[in-house]
Specification:
Layout lengths: L2 H31 L5 H31 L3 H27 L6 H22 L7
């Protein structure tokens, strides 16, 4: 296995892990958290969960792109920003839903990282447009 394929598998594995964690947290939210928080907090929890799953899927797609077009700095930036965004945005919202608003400052930082990750990914894919896959 080439280095780019290993890197791609690593990003995809992280994505699969975070998708699995999102499913677990969705079940925990429904069975454990819902009875202890209000409707607004549960809505915030749901947003955190949904975006965690989206970012997990993004990491899987990133892994496929890395395997297809080889290792690139833009893929690394994309992955780091996706992970940072996932942890700060979703993590911050989970904390807001369960512990209170004092953690709300994390969400805009994480959301900005998520947006930037997708823009960097789009730019990286655009740069690959003239390169056939292996």
């Amino acid at each position: 296995m080439q280095k780019s394929e290993k890197t791609g598998v690593l990003w995809a594995a992280w994505g699969a892990f975070f998708c699995a964690a999102a499913v677990i947290l969705a079940a925990a939210g429904d069975h454990l958290v819902a009875k202890d928080v209000g409707a607004r907090a549960l809505h915030v929890y749901d947003i955190a969960n949904r975006f965690q799953f989206y970012q997990g899927l993004g990491l899987i797609v990133l892994g496929l792109a890395a395997a297809q077009w080889g290792e690139r700095r833009l893929w690394t930036w994309t992955g780091v920003l996706m992970l940072l965004g996932l942890l700060l945005f979703s993590g911050g919202l989970y904390l807001v839903a369960i512990l209170g608003r004092q953690y709300a400052f994390l969400a805009p930082i994480g959301g900005s990282a998520m947006i930037l990750s997708w823009l960097v990914f789009a730019f990286g894919l655009w740069r690959c447009r003239s390169e056939p896959g292996r």
